[in-house]
Amino acid sequence: MQLGFVSAILPDLSLEEVLAFAADEGFACVEVMCWPPGGADRRYAGVTHLDVTNLTDDHAGRVRDLVKKHGVAISGLGYYPNPLDPNPEHRRTVVEHLTKVIAAAPKVGVGVVNTFVGRDPHLPAEANWPRAREVWPGLVKEAESAGVALGIENCPMLFSADEWPGGKNLASSPASWRRLFAEFPSPRLGLNFDPSHLVWQHIDIARAVREFGRRFVHVHAKDARLDPDRMYEVGILGLNWHTPKLPGMGDVDWGRFFSALTDAKYNGPVCVEVEDRAYEGSLEDRKRSLRQSRHFLRQWVA
Questions:
Q1: Residue 279, domain member (yes or no)
Q2: Which residue of 17, 70, 256, 271 is surrounded by the most CB atoms within 10 Å?
Q3: CB neighbours of residue 257 within 10 Å
């Protein structure tokens, strides 16, 4: 396994500065964010360390040169929108940009693109599958043509009452992953697995790794701390009773998780994803969060 981090936590830095920091701190890889330039509509989105909208051959060559110069691999290109958004115009814009990310990956020597399946949160899960059948066959075909694996992250994207009850990502549980792979049976479709999202859903992480580990193309390392007092107040049907934390500061059993990963023979990237607000005060705090996470995870990722 290769220890890295998600570049979204360092929006202040250029791609070269991100790779230089990773090299200095002993990280082997970085997942590079590829949002369209122009800002974001939610936290941790909108970061553009690689602009794929006008990626020339010369620019792609410079990116490959930077990777070689710093000795840090790009583990994947990341873009996490809602491809099944209920607004047709927005959905079309998202799919067009995701297609550009897929096309850019082989140009910069990258074999993985990480994203969400998406979901209309106001429709039942079953009612979302017809729209998925409209959108995803074309994206899977693009990935197959480019020789790229699609890593679907398992975050439900459920943070507010507006997203209740289903969130904005359909592929968030074992049942939905089985359905996803049955609907789109391509070897180019896999999971970008984040254990923190299973903690607050009360899904057995190690069991999920044992069942689906062979479909992992990328892994995020993020923790989640459950809040029993908030749970007491609102119950399991409420919101905001878990908090994203750095690895080792929440309720993920990391030893059991990595034990399951090794049993599943996963040998790919494990990228720290920082969404811990306690470390957002400054650029130095965010850099410190990555150093601290690296120190903790090196127990399992040498």
A1: yes
A2: 271
A3: 22
Q: Which domain holds residue 16?
A: 2-297
In 3D space, the residue among 54, 44, 60, 55 whose CA is nearest the CA of residue 11 turns out to be 44
The H helix count followed by the E strand count for the chain is 10, 10
Residue whose C-alpha is closest to residue 50's, from 21, 16, 82, 94: 16
Residue 174: per-residue pLDDT: 98
Residue 154: inside a domain: yes
Question: In total, how many domains does the chain have?
Answer: 1
- The answer to whether 19 touches 27, Cβ cutoff 8 Å, is no
| Average pLDDT, integer, range 45-65 | 96
For residue 19, report the phi and psi dihedrals to the nearest 5 degrees. Answer: -65, -35
* 302 within a domain of the structure (yes/no): no
| pTM, entire model | 0.96
End-to-end CA distance of the chain: 8
Q: Is the pLDDT of residue 34 over 90?
A: yes
Rounded mean pLDDT of 90-104?
98
